[in-house]
Amino acid sequence: MKTIVITGSTRGIGRGLADSFLARGCAVAVSGRATESVERVVSDLAGSHDAGRVWGQACDVTDMEQVQALWDGAKAHYGTIDVWINNAGVPNPRIPFSDYSSEQIDAVVGTNLLGTIYGARVAVRGMLEQGGGSLYNMEGLGSDGRTIKGTMIYATTKSAVRYLTRALVEETRGTPVRVGALSPGMVVTDFLTAGQEGGSEEWERTKRVLNILADRVETVTPWLAERVLADDKHGAHIAWLTRGKVMWRFLTASLRKRDLFA
Questions:
Q1: Could you give the C-alpha distances from 155 to 111, 147, 216, 232, in angstroms and in order?
Q2: Annotation: CATH topology of 3-188+216-248
Q3: Radius of gyration of the chain (CA)
């Protein structure tokens, strides 16, 4: 039985991953900023899986001491940590860049980039001490270098996360620690739709593209979980929405009527 720690797992992709790993016999440590949401999700997951395999602890990933406490708590509870997934992330407000406050910038950069750096540092150090383990960083819009209006701060952090992952692969080469990246593609969550105005022309155009390329959490996370559990490669890039899949979906869009927002 593998033990999985997932930051930002009280909602969206993180929660979907927690459910998917539990369904495959793993033990999971759930984490989020608020104790109440962590307790609620642990209770919900324990109702549909073996309660002995799900545990949770609140953690603000922008605070390294709390990230270390999450590692220590999960290790004390389960004995070892086989996989650590840096998933916690927040979107940027969809406003002009010049209107951003320092607090808004700090929130996105702190969670998405510093939180991933802190999580990686804690996980790599802990895995070296315990003799091995696997670390995965969650990619997102910006990881592939594309620029899309209205996503600058978020995408900048995800671009940096890709560099961080590649650097970590080299840094840990020859050690018992494996490092890789997870790329879920476009997944319909409140994270994706945050700040969108229902009924606006721009949002309607966006939805048409999403109905071609995006998927639901329950479609993507089981696939990711299976690939993580089967992965034995250092530097793996586990991607759901590949270029080939994108091309095929556009080519067959007229034959596949989908409404992910119904």
A1: 13, 8, 21, 29
A2: Rossmann fold (3.40.50)
A3: 18
144-176 exposure pattern, b = at least 16 Cβ within 10 A, e = fewer: eeeeeebbbbbbbbbbbbbebbeebbeebeeee
* 189-204 confidence digits (pLDDT tens): 876 666 555 556 776 7
**Contacts with 10 (C-beta within 8 Å, 6 or more apart), sequence order:** 30, 31, 32, 34, 37, 38, 40, 41
Active site residues: 154
pLDDT tens digit sequence for 216-237: 999 999 999 999 999 999 999 9
CA atoms of 123 and 93, how far apart (whole Å): 30
pLDDT of residue 196: 57
Per-domain boundaries in the chain: 3-188+216-248
Return d(Cα 10, Cα 18) in angstroms, integer: 9
Q: What is the pLDDT of residue 170?
A: 98
User: Can you tell me the distance from the alpha carbon of 179 to that of 93, in angstroms, rounded to the nearest whole number?
Assistant: 31
Average pLDDT, the chain: 92
